[in-house]
């Protein structure tokens, strides 16, 4: 089932986006099945799950941390953290600087919808945050990430992704040093098609690949 699901979504996305299989609710055995199906990018949102999958998967698999990362837990995954999709606090950046021995590719999480239930910076606060990161040696900001509202209103979802794409273009004009914004991490199982229309380069897909849990 995983192979068939991945093949179908790969045909839809083509080479326009990296498909991250979200395995946070799934077993190591299921993650290995996904690897055997050709998937090389996996998403986890807890340090414990990140460590478990990283230790089980072959070395050429990328395990992305896609959830909220508490600063006190950075050291638990620092050795293997190469992609972080949720940077929105200086405290986390400082811990990456302290514990990482390599550069971490980071997406700034932006709360485009303004929902209280979502993490991330308000769009207006992103430029200032980028300024605070410019002296970091272990952080390379490669793009922005957002999560759309959990709604059936596809026009609202479209608006959120459009606004992030516009912000991405605006900020990329100031690229320099460790700020190299070009990527967009947005879109999940129920809305990745909309995200792709607005230039998503990383999509995070769980149930549509791995099955429901």
What can be said about this structure in brief?
This protein has 213 residues and is an alpha/beta fold.
3D structure, described in words:
By secondary structure, the protein is an alpha/beta fold. The protein has helices at residues 2-13, 28-36, 47-56, 74-77, 90-99, 126-133, 154-172, 192-197, 207-210; strands at 18-22, 41-44, 62-65, 83-87, 104-109, 139-145, 179-185, 202-205. It starts with a helix and ends with a helix. It has a 4-stranded parallel β-sheet. It has a 4-stranded parallel β-sheet with strand order 4-5-6-7. The radius of gyration is 16 Å and the shape is globular.
Write the topology of this structure.
Blueprint: H1 2-13, E1 18-22, H2 28-36, E2 41-44, H3 47-56, E3 62-65, H4 74-77, E4 83-87, H5 90-99, E5 104-109, H6 126-133, E6 139-145, H7 154-172, E7 179-185, H8 192-197, E8 202-205, H9 207-210
Key words describing this protein structure:
213 residues, alpha/beta, four-stranded parallel sheet, 9 helices, 8 strands, 20% strand, globular
The oligomeric state is single chain
Helix-strand sequence = HEHEHEHEHEHEHEHEH
What is the helix content? 25-40%
Shape: globular
In what order do the strands lie side by side in the largest sheet? Answer: 3-2-1-8
Roughly what is the average pLDDT, rounded to an integer? 97
Distance between the termini: 14 Å
Total number of β-strand segments? 8
**Unreliably modeled segments:** none
| Rg, alpha carbons | 16 Å
Structural class: alpha/beta
Beta-strand share of residues: 15-25%
């Amino acid at each position: 089932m995983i192979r068939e699901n991945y093949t179908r979504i790969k045909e839809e996305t083509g080479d326009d986006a990296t498909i991250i299989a979200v395995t946070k609710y799934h077993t190591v055995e299921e993650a290995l099945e996904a690897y055997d199906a050709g998937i090389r990018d996996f998403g986890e949102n807890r340090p414990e799950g990140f460590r478990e999958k990283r230790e089980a998967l072959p070395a050429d698999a990328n395990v992305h941390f896609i959830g909220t990362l508490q600063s006190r837990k950075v050291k638990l995954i620092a050795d293997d953290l190469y992609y972080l999709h949720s940077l929105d606090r200086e405290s986390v950046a400082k811990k990456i600087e302290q514990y990482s021995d390599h550069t971490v590719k980071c997406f700034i999480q932006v709360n485009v919808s303004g929902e209280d239930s979502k993490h991330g910076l308000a769009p207006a606060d992103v430029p200032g945050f980028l300024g605070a990161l410019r002296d970091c040696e272990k952080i390379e900001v490669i793009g922005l990430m957002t999560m759309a509202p959990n709604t059936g209103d596809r026009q609202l979802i479209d608006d959120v992704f459009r606004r992030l794409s516009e912000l991405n273009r605006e900020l990329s004009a100031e690229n320099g040093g460790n700020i190299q914004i070009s990527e967009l991490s947005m879109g999940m199982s129920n809305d990745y098609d909309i995200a792709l229309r607005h230039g998503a380069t990383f999509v995070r897909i769980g149930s549509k690949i791995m099955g429901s849990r």
